[in-house]
Design a protein that fits this description.
The protein has 219 residues and is α+β, with helices and mostly antiparallel strands. 26% of the residues lie in helices and 24% in strands. The chain has 2 domains: 84 residues, Phosphorylase Kinase, domain 1 (2-Layer Sandwich), CATH 3.30.200; 117 residues, Transferase(Phosphotransferase), domain 1, CATH 1.10.510.10. The termini are far apart.
């Protein structure tokens, strides 16, 4: 994949990741002299109005929530071909998926992480939002002061990302489409007639706990 030289006013440096619905690039904001993550809707979904609206809903939702435990959105824009993009704070510490791929985490660190993730999910639920896709790839790390627990790094913050599947509780009904990642999503998410509520995220947290504290966890 060839990197674009520019997206909006941001100079593109490299590819950060590719998903089913979007591509994420590392950009540089010349005015503020800082890096940003730029999420661009995938070209093959650009004409699907439902996917486009869900993409924009994620940006609006993160901008509205604007919380330290969630990835922050700074702006949205549109490419020349009409595809929308969102400009987010760059999670310079990578993802939980990356860290788990390097080997098991110490039990104390795993428990601390699970507590931080649960605190972020609490923020969502407090505002009537169900994430529905809590996976290691959607847990990010960013440099910055963290909650003082005596276990986690004092210079790192745990963030929840990718709310593209999230829905307001008022809209989370049997009319919503099946969505989630196999192995992490609650059983009811596989039933198009089921009502999906905060319990789906409790299940997701449990699956993350199993992954973090599995048989390979370090001492």
């Amino acid at each position: 994949m060839t990197a674009p030289a520019q997206i909006g006013p941001y100079r593109i440096e490299r590819l950060l990741g590719v998903g089913s619905f979007a591509t994420v690039w590392l950009g540089h904001d010349g005015t503020l002299d800082c890096h940003v993550a730029i999420k661009v809707l995938a070209e093959n979904w650009s004409h699907d109005l439902r996917v486009r609206e869900r993409f924009l809903d994620e940006a609006r939702l993160l901008r509205w929530l604007d919380h330290d435990r969630l990835v922050r959105v700074h702006a949205v824009g549109e490419l020349a071909d009409g595809r929308p993009y969102s400009v987010m704070a760059w999670a310079d510490g990578g993802s939980l998926r990356d860290r788990l791929a390097r080997g098991p985490l110490p039990v104390a660190t795993a428990l601390w992480l699970l507590g931080e993730i649960a605190a972020g999910v609490t923020v969502l639920h407090r505002h009537g939002v169900v994430h529905r896709d809590l996976t290691p790839g959607n847990i990010l790390f960013r440099s910055g002061p963290a909650a003082a627990t005596g276990v986690g790094r004092a210079d790192e913050r745990v963030l929840i990302a990718d709310l593209g599947l999230a829905k307001a509780l008022a809209a989370a009904s049997g009319l919503t489409a099946r969505a989630g990642t196999p192995g992490y999503m609650a059983p009811e998410q596989d039933d198009p007639l089921a009502v999906v509520d905060t319990r789906a995220d409790v299940f997701g947290l449990g699956r993350l706990g199993v992954r973090l504290l599995g048989a390979g966890a370090g001492r």
